[in-house]
Amino acid sequence: MQIWNWSGFFDYLTNPFILGGAFTTLWLTAVAIIGGLVLGFVLALMKMAPSRLLSAPAAGYIWLFRGTPLLVQLIVIYTGLPQLGIKLSVVESALIGLTLNEAAYLAEIVRAGITAVPQGQVRAARALGMREAQIMRYIVMPQALRIIIPPLGNSVNGLLKTTSVTSVISMEELLRRTQVLIQERFMVLELFAVAAIYYLVMTTLWDIVQRRIERRFGRAYQQLGSATEQR
Amino acid sequence: MITIDSVSKWYGDFQVLKNCTTTVEKGAVVVVCGPSGSGKSTLIKCVNGLEDFQEGTITVAGTSVGAPDTDLPKLRSRVGMVFQNFELFPHLSIMDNLTIAQEKVLGRSRSEAAEKARQLLARVDLSAQAQKYPLQLSGGQQQRVAIARALAMDPVAMLFDEPTSALDPEMVSEVLDVMTSLAREGMTMMCVTHEMGFARKVADRVIFIDKGEIVDDRPTEDFFGKERSGRAEQFLSKLLGH
């Protein structure tokens, strides 16, 4: 047995089976982030509502999903729910588990972003005759988004790696497929190295995308030298 | 145009406004002054319903502000307001700051709103800044944009809540100049301000509030003559004392 099989390593680096797994990791992340953001936004609004009828369920949800391991949530969804007659496929379970879990974290990020927009902005928008939904959409959310983007980017980065947890319910993402190959070929280090490289490529690419988005949203906040020289 | 009748307001046990009564006639300019914490900003915010009040009535252009069936957003769209801290929308260009409410509230077309915005930016001498963002402008420029933004809605009256208090001294006059020309054109204005020079020159009436009470409400010449109250006298001497 060799110590390190270079040709095996390079073979797997371009292996379509592993590449497919990485692709699954990508779309799992994308769907969970978008779904989590939508649900998280609703949870954030509920949690900020003056009525306890709205805020209490949201707080309870966040408490539950942030307070228990994703691993447990996935296993409950995939193997526990059938006991109640709810049978979900692996893909459905993985997507639902990741989304529900992510929503709990994103709700807090969204809430922090919305809270950070000064009340004076809302007052000014009201004074112009805008209605509450318009104020949220045109005034508060665009400003909150700028505040939300750095922690949101962090969540995307985290989620790219967290999707690997779904391998325990046999979701065929990058880690699972790597493990499948390992069981066939026993090239443990080579294959894990390939998986690690894929994860690094994905997180690095995301870093670049995130920096672009941040710059775009920061445009309005760049001061052009000293303000009095602007005439 | 604006009628304030026996308005009282409490924050819990603390009474911020005590039975305030006054009127602002169409085309009149009224300056509201008083020590900090006297309730003058609260009073002006009651006029367009940004603050609620527990007793009394306020009527703006025939609409009761406090009535439960009043469409407050609609009422507010007809009353311009300028804030101490400008409150321009930092994520929108100057142009978009002036057009967003025209489009979303009044339903004007993009081109109609932009045309109106251009006229008003020219009026406050800021045409060159249309594509910039608020934080790239000086305080005085931002406040002039804020006035233009309010005027873009074709308001029937304008409320000013300490419009020059957050400005560096050298920028105060550029804002007061705009306000003065508005007043000369017959705009109905209610201004909370400490600028006594502006009050003397432009206001038709001066209201002095202390501890939530309207203590003086008289024609400008009387207020700056000898007819003001002892409390207003004290306040003015502190303001002008050095």
Automatic annotation (TrEMBL), chain A:
GO cellular component: ATP-binding cassette (ABC) transporter complex
Residue intervals of the ABC transmembrane type-1 domain: 22-210
Keyword annotations from UniProtKB, A to Z: Amino-acid transport, Cell membrane, Membrane, Transmembrane, Transmembrane helix, Transport
UniProt xrefs under Pfam families: BPD_transp_1
Gene Ontology biological process terms from the UniProt entry: amino acid transport
GO molecular function annotation: transmembrane transporter activity
Membrane topology: Multi-pass membrane protein
Superkingdom of the source species: Bacteria
Membrane spanning residue stretches: 17-46, 58-81, 186-209
Intracellular or extracellular location(s): Cell inner membrane; Cell membrane
Assembly: The complex is composed of two ATP-binding proteins (GltL), two transmembrane proteins (GltJ and GltK) and a solute-binding protein (GltI).
Recorded family membership: Belongs to the binding-protein-dependent transport system permease family. HisMQ subfamily.
Biological role stated in the UniProt entry: Part of the ABC transporter complex GltIJKL involved in glutamate and aspartate uptake. Probably responsible for the translocation of the substrate across the membrane.
Name of this protein: Glutamate/aspartate import permease protein GltK
Organism annotation: Chelatococcus caeni
From TrEMBL, chain B:
Pfam families the record matches: ABC_tran
CDD domains: ABC_HisP_GlnQ
Residue intervals passing through the bilayer: none
Molecular function GO terms recorded: ABC-type amino acid transporter activity; ATP binding; ATP hydrolysis activity
Cellular compartments annotated: Cell membrane
InterPro entries the UniProt entry points to: AAA+_ATPase, ABC_ATPase_HisP-typ, ABC_transporter-like_ATP-bd, ABC_transporter-like_CS, MetN_ABC_transporter-like, P-loop_NTPase
Domain ABC transporter span(s) in chain numbering: 2-236
UniProt topology in membrane: Peripheral membrane protein
Protein's UniProt keywords contain Methyltransferase: no
Highest rank taxon of the organism: Bacteria
Gene3D superfamilies membership: P-loop containing nucleotide triphosphate hydrolases (3.40.50.300)
Keyword Membrane belongs to the record: yes
EC number: 3.6.3.-
Entry GO CC: plasma membrane
SUPFAM superfamilies: P-loop containing nucleoside triphosphate hydrolases (SSF52540)
Keywords: Amino-acid transport, ATP-binding, Cell membrane, Hydrolase, Membrane, Nucleotide-binding, Transport
Family: Belongs to the ABC transporter superfamily.
Family annotation (PANTHER family): AMINO ACID IMPORT ATP-BINDING PROTEIN, GLUTAMATE_ASPARTATE IMPORT ATP-BINDING PROTEIN GLTL
Protein's UniProt name: Glutamate/aspartate transport system ATP-binding protein
Upper lineage: Bacteria, Pseudomonadati, Pseudomonadota, Alphaproteobacteria, Hyphomicrobiales
